[in-house]
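mind reviewing this stuff:

——
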Amino acid sequence: MIGVVVSRADRASEHIGERLLAADWTAREDEDRPDADGGGTYHRTSVAGESFELRAFDDMHIHLDDPTPAFSERPDYLVFVSRHSGDTGPLLTCHFTGNFGDAEYGGSDRSFAPACPGVQRALVAGFDEHAPDGYGVAVECTHHGPTELSVPSLFAELGSDDDQWDDPAGAAAVARAVLDLPERGATPAAGDPDDPRHLVGLGGGHYAPRFERVLRETAWGVGHVASDWQLEELGHPGEHADALAAAFDASDARFALVEGETDRPALERALADLGYRVVSETWVRAVDDRPLDLVSELEADLRPVDEGLRFGAVRSEAYAVVDLPDDLLAAAHGVDPERARAAVADRAVAFETRENGTQAVGRAAFPDTGTDGADGTGRTDAPDAAGTYDDLIDALAALLRETHDEVERRPDAVVARTAAFDPEKAATLGVPEGPAFGALAGGESVEVNGETVPPTAVESERVEEFPV
C-alpha cells in the first residue's frame, strides 16, 4: 500500500489532493483518530493492483510526527504531496527529508528519514511525462523534516510560487505522476532489494542535476544528497561520522558520489573509515546494472574502472583473463577505431582500455567456455576462452582486409600484405621526384624518356605480422 499525506496548512498540497481524489476513490471513516491527525474521512483506491490510501493532516508536513500509524495498514512508502518554494519558476520537484546539521525546519538534528530511491526514479519519470508546458523537472538535495519516520518516504512538490500552487494543470501533473507509480513498478529499492544499487550524493547545489542524471540514465538510485551548504552545516566529517553513517543507513547505500570540489580529503577519509566507497560518475555509468560482486572481481583481476576498465556486451559470471593482441588491435584501430573497440566489446565480459576508454588494450575477460575448475562465478582455475578469442582475431583480421591486399590468418599470427609505391624503384627507373612520384603512388602510369612506367613496376610488397 502507498500512503499519500496531504497537509491542510499547504494549499498546494490540498490542491494536489483534490486532483488525486478526482479519480475513483472510496471514502471511509476513522473514528479512532482526530481529524487533525489524519483521522475522520480518508480515502482508498487501487491502481494496477496497488492500493493507495490518502490521509489529510492539519499541520505542515515538515512538522509532522511519523504519520505512518494513521494509516489503516503499514504503507510500503509515503508520498508527501507539497508545495515547493523558490525562485525557479514553474517546477515539479522531489526530494528526501533529513538534516545534515541543526533541524531548523522540522525533524531532528543530523537525522534522516528512510529514503526510497526506486520510487524517486519512477516519480521523476512521471513528472517528465505529465509536466505541463513551461514546467521544469528537478531533484533537490535532502532538507527539512520530518525525519523520524518508520517507512521510506519522499516529497512530491508543485512549485514554485502562488501561480503554480493554484494551477490546476500543475496539480494534476503531480497527482498523475503519483498515481502512475504502480504502473512504473516503483519500489523503495532501486535494483535488487537484497543488494540495492544506491548512492549517497555529496556536494553541489540545492538542486542536484548530476545526481538526477545518474538516476535518469543508469540503473543506480540516489538516496540522500548533501549539498555544499549542508556539508558546511554538518561540520568536520570526522567529528560527525555518525551523521554520515545515518545518511547512508537511511539510503540503504554503501557507495558515495561526490560533486563539486574535488579536494575533500577529510570527507573521503571519514567515508573510508566508515567502510563506504567513493566512486566517480564514470564508474557508475560503466558499472550500470552489472552484478557488483562480479565488478569487484574484474577490477581486482584487471584494473579499476577509473583506470580504464570497461565492460563488454557479454554477461557472464565465469570468465577467463586473456592478453589482447595489442599490435593487431592497434592496426585495426587505424582502420576504424570504433569498430576495432566494438570487436572486443561485443565479445568480452570486460576489457582494459586507454585514451579515455576509446581504445581496447592490454587484457580482457572473456566468457569461460570450459568446465574444469569452474564454479559458475568469477575467474576459473582452468579457463577456456579460446573460441571467443579466435572469433575476435577473425573480426580484427576482417577489418585489416579493408586496407590490405591480402590478410592471412595463421594459428599464431595474422599476416597482412600490401603492395606499396617504392621510391627507390622509381628512382632506379629514372622517374623524377615530384608529380610523377605522386601519380605512380596514386596508381597511375607515367611517361619517362618515351617509355611507360606502370605502377606495378615501382611497387614493393610490405608485410606486417601481428602475433596472436
About this structure: The chain is about 30% helix and 25% strand. The longest strand covers residues 77-85. The mean pLDDT is 93.
